[in-house]
Amino acid sequence: MPHHRFECSECIPEREKHAVVKGPGEDLTDALPLGYLNTIPGTISERGCAYCGAKHVIGTPMKDVIHISHGPVGCTYDTWQTKRYISDNDNFQLKNTFATDVKEKHIVFGAEKLLKQNIIEAFKAFPDIKRMTIYQTCATALIGDDIGAVADEVMEEMPDVDIFVCNSPGFAGPSQSGGHHKINIAWVKNKVGTVEPEIYSDYVINYVGEYNIQGDQEVMQDYFKRMGIQVLSTFTGNGSYDDLRAMHKAHLNVLECARSAEYICNELRVKYNIPRLDIDGFGFEPLSSSLRKIGIFFGIEDRAQAIIDEETARWKPELEWYKERLKGKKVCLWPGGSKLWHWANVIHEEMGLEVVSVYTKFGHQGDMEKGIARCEEGALAIDDPNELEGLEAMEKLKPDVIFTGKRPGEVAKKVRVPYLNAHAYHNGPYKGYEGWVRFARDIYNAIYSPIHQLSGIDISKDEIATDKGFSTQRLVSDANLPEEVKNSETLRQYTGGFDSVSKLRNKTYPYLEQRAASVEA
């Protein structure tokens, strides 16, 4: 197991132990970099803080809640709208963000009066919303504001409202994961068991660690509904505050993202004897195995198998089409926490992609262990990389595409490496059978995009033919374009939507194959 020293980090020798190349036949005792430690000074980490992990990842997806940050306005702004946590109440939590906007004078004299004033103003501004979560930040934690006391005072004066306090300032852990833990434990301790739900099914679950990114939760809920399962609450995507107070009545906790929400499942098992079942909604085989496990638990595996058979027959041919064209393409898998290992092996097995690097900015050692175990030999595993290390890795590995967040993704585009948003997706949802094909479609489009090919031209020195149009112009005027696609309305759909490609797949695939071959050449 050779540790990997980045040239840009030679002046920080400690960084060498945070990057490892997985060698032939090595196990995790040999190929595991140091991780989930305090950031080394001088590395200019791009990590999020514990406050971000609590509010942005876990709390904000709750739909019928005023999410207010007690601190400077920059904290709430940084955690607003960067993920697509959609909800069925007109996306209230995406359209609105709240902060007490603490200033220097409040740091000196205290900000509890300001907090109370803001709470009351927020409830009056949105009279239909009766629930609130208050998030502590570094500034108000350091001056010692008693947020809980203020919340209790408001609830006494306004008995129709309920307030949850999350004490998770940015310094509460080495990364976002510290905030995950804080809000998980606080919710079980302070809110679970305070509402009694209506039970209408013999099979009742909490869907935990699911944040409804571009509709992921809705896809999975459809499968559960077809199996006759009642989803009591979703922690926390499109989740209702009061439904989440009733988590203690579920028969089973179905856990999707173990990185962010295993804590609450473990506490519910101890306190209410609710078993935990880990599942995976990404990829045909992992999803099928997950549905079978849930079916076996409740004794309804025949219902699960019926869904598996139907969905696989419908979508597997399309996945195979993309696999043929993605086979051997190199990927840097640089997502958040759980997708590191949710995707590491299945994109190789079901799409033919080669994972040449994995990293996590805020995951635990367990995330890296599972990710390294599932990726191929020769992969470069990095803990908490900075921008320069990411650039150096791309220069060395020359990936065809990277899966990461928006900030490192935009950096990759500057060096002409296409990226897909692993956090908020490009054109999700990606869960479910159709979603997995949609993911493959986005990968295909990223790699074979004519616009991306044009980005590789250096206009200062490369010859550009002036007697020929660009690839996109040829695409729409090509004489080989199928007749039915030449219709303007069909052409608009053909170039703009996944569903239209699905509808035309039998007739357009030969054309797409031809275009792919020309781009590859």
From TrEMBL:
<dbReference type="GO" id="GO:0005524">
    <property type="term" value="F:ATP binding"/>
</dbReference>
<protein>
    <recommendedName>
        <fullName>Nitrogenase protein alpha chain</fullName>
        <ecNumber>1.18.6.1</ecNumber>
    </recommendedName>
</protein>
<comment type="similarity">
    <text>Belongs to the NifD/NifK/NifE/NifN family.</text>
</comment>
<keyword id="KW-0408">Iron</keyword>
<keyword id="KW-0560">Oxidoreductase</keyword>
<feature type="domain" description="Nitrogenase/oxidoreductase component 1">
    <location>
        <begin position="49"/>
        <end position="447"/>
    </location>
</feature>
<keyword id="KW-0411">Iron-sulfur</keyword>
<dbReference type="InterPro" id="IPR005974">
    <property type="entry name" value="Nase_asu"/>
</dbReference>
<dbReference type="GO" id="GO:0016163">
    <property type="term" value="F:nitrogenase activity"/>
</dbReference>
<keyword id="KW-0547">Nucleotide-binding</keyword>
<dbReference type="InterPro" id="IPR011290">
    <property type="entry name" value="Nase_Fe-Fe_asu"/>
</dbReference>
<dbReference type="InterPro" id="IPR010143">
    <property type="entry name" value="Nase_comp1_asu"/>
</dbReference>
<keyword id="KW-0479">Metal-binding</keyword>
<dbReference type="InterPro" id="IPR000510">
    <property type="entry name" value="Nase/OxRdtase_comp1"/>
</dbReference>
<dbReference type="GO" id="GO:0051536">
    <property type="term" value="F:iron-sulfur cluster binding"/>
</dbReference>
<dbReference type="GO" id="GO:0046872">
    <property type="term" value="F:metal ion binding"/>
</dbReference>
<keyword id="KW-0067">ATP-binding</keyword>
<dbReference type="Pfam" id="PF00148">
    <property type="entry name" value="Oxidored_nitro"/>
</dbReference>
<keyword id="KW-0535">Nitrogen fixation</keyword>
<dbReference type="InterPro" id="IPR000318">
    <property type="entry name" value="Nase_comp1_CS"/>
</dbReference>
